[in-house]
Amino acid sequence: MQNTLVMAxxxxxxxxxxxxxxxxxxxxxxxxxxxKSSEDLSRQEFELQVKFDELKKKFDMxxxxxxxxxxxxxxxxxxxxxxx
Length: 84
Fold this sequence. Notes:
This protein is mainly α. The chain contains one helix and no strands.
């Protein structure tokens, strides 16, 4: 009977040890996944910021061109008004 109790205790200890190892591995995997997700989000944020900056530059260029066009059109209207 003593041997049975010792064997049961050893088996229980082994099961606890394996369960702890599995829990530790799950935590390590979760931490690795969290780091990877965080890195992916940081990369995506950077890419979106670059795209936003490019679009802002394009918009500013378009705005400047439209402003120049409108000014030239206004000058033409002023000149045609003075000729009459």
